[in-house]
Amino acid sequence: MQLYDVAVVGGGVAGLTAAIYAAKAGKQTIVIEKQDRLGGRAMSNKKNGAYFNLGGHALYHGDALASFREFGLSLQGNKPSIDGYAIWNGKLTVLPTGVKSLVATPLLSWKGKVELAAWLAKFGKLDTHRYDQVSLREWIEGNVQDPMVRNIFYALLRTASYVVAPDLQAAGPVLQQLKNALQGVLYLDRGWGAAVDELRKKASDYGVRFITKSKVISIDHHNGIVQQVLCEDGTKVPAKNIILTTSPAIAHQLVPHAEATALHTWKKQAIEITAACLDVALRRLPKPKQQFVYGIDQTVFLSNQSRAAYLSEDGAQVVSVIKYQGKETDPEKDLQALEQTLDLVQPGWQDELVAKQYLPKITVCYDFMHTKRQENPGPAVPEIKGLYVAGEWASHGELLVDAATASAKRAIQHILSHEGTERTPYYEHRDIV
Ligand SMILES: Cc1cc2nc3c(=O)[nH]c(=O)nc-3n(C[C@H](O)[C@H](O)[C@H](O)COP(=O)(O)OP(=O)(O)OC[C@H]3O[C@@H](n4cnc5c(N)ncnc54)[C@H](O)[C@@H]3O)c2cc1C
User: Fold this and answer.
1) Where is 7: in which H helix or E strand?
2) Helix boundaries (H) for 162-275
3) From 267, 293, 347, 371, which residue has the greatest number of CB atoms within 10 Å?
4) Digit-coded pLDDT (tens) for 73-98
């Protein structure tokens, strides 16, 4: 059996990124994925000629884009326009995103318009790290005066992060995400699955091996050092370093005696964020001007991704509608809310329907930057030499896919910088709170 330098559990964006960084540095690398294809939550599905992501996806100007560019991915697609609408009191109204829309919108009083204009001018220079320890609500209530400008900030920051927990969410990271968003996001041609295909190809070119349809059931370790990955079908993959890119709960489950490691804290502190997503491909848009809509008094968001990306073979328009879920979710009520949003924005959409995908409750992130976090997860699991975590929940301040790639990069940097250190065992039991 070959001894790998790096074995990666999970073939989503974090796993593929880790594998490319490892193989680029000359490490013998393998990726083990339980599904029959790679991509995890970044995969796309093709239905009746239309490409659907698993819910609307936008690539921000952050760590993921930087890594993808470093790997030489082509990332075809475009920046969508941000001219849009807001839903307030069940009606559509102009969303203030620039000078013209700010003057035109009936949503704000003159005082509110002046305050929002000042924010638009200075937001790009905001030192967001100052607010890393402050909750989002504290930041908004302490810094924004006008009640409607506050509502707009809540809506923009919710959409930038998918999180509906202003009392828990750390303000700094999500403000940074909004800063990244204001530079313009990228919608990808043929969906995020196209980027996954490119990542896979890049990894293969560097010599990464892949095993798919193989569920990992245990990470064997002995005397505080990782030994091998064990799969359900009996496959054993011995490795010097193992990177887990599963959820924190599964990572905990896979590692014997995880309760005596940092994995226990990371699992306990994690707060999962979910969304309900309705994606539709429409032959034509009944209201072609209404392509981008923020719910202000409802936690919904709508975007016609086809306005910036090639997402269908026959010109159908792929529209994503998202309902950000808090603690309480109800698949039928959420679907109703999503369909009502489509009724309002694109009346008669049902008559133009080519294809549809409904995801009643999909995990957007297994954890995020919140004020109850005891520590940022990873990259190393300190009690077991050679064991690492990556994935969007292993964030050190980044959000969503940026956290997936940044945590993967951190894991490989840690492996490379600890190369040659003696593989002596060490256990560092911690008090579990
Ligand atoms: C609706 C929605 C909208 C989103 N929108 C955006 C957006 O606009 N912008 C943005 O930046 N991000 C967005 N994201 C987040 C982004 O998709 C994720 O952050 C990213 O895809 C996570 O990658 P990952 O590798 O960390 O996790 P995953 O993609 O979940 O990969 C983990 C992989 O591990 C595999 N696995 C699990 N257990 C095992 C096991 N026991 N053995 C082997 N394999 C295993 C899984 O099958 C999976 O393939 C969105 C996510 C969702 C769901």
Assistant:
1) strand 4-9
2) 171-182, 192-205, 248-254, 262-269
3) 293
4) 999 999 999 999 999 999 999 999 98
Mean of per-residue pLDDT scores for the chain: 95
CA angle 262, 267, 269 (to 5 degrees): 95
Helices (H), 255-362: 262-269, 331-345
Q: Which atom of ligand 1 is nearest to the CA of 399?
A: 11
- pLDDT at residue 421 tops 70: no
**In the block, residue with structure tokens 């994935």:** 391
pLDDT higher than 50, residue 100: yes
Average pLDDT, integer, range 301-325: 97
How far does the centroid of ligand 1 lie from the alpha carbon of residue 396, in Å?
A: 17
Residue 144 Cβ contacting ligand 1 at under 6 Å: no
Which percentage of the chain shows pLDDT scores above 70?
97
Identify the structural domains of the chain with CATH numbers, from first to last: 4-36+212-270+369-417 (3.50.50.60), 42-80+186-193+273-365 (3.90.660), 97-182 (no CATH)
The kind and range of the H/E element at 100 are helix 99-104
| Rg value, the chain, Cα | 22
Q: Assess contact for 313 and 324: CB atoms under 8 A.
A: no
Residue to substitute in 9, 246, 405 for testing ligand 1 pocket (most ligand atoms within 8 angstroms of CB) = 246
Instruction: Decide whether any atom of ligand 1 lies within 6 Å of the 9 Cβ.
Output: yes
- Does 55 sit in the ligand 1 pocket, CB within 6 Å? yes
Structural element, H or E, at residue 219: strand 216-222
Residue 40 Cα to ligand 1 midpoint, Å, equals 5
Alpha carbon distances (Å) from 320 to 266, 317, 341: 32, 10, 11
34: Cβ below 6 Å to ligand 1? Answer: yes
**pLDDT tens for residues 208-217?**
999 999 999 9
Q: Mean per-residue pLDDT for 124-152?
A: 97
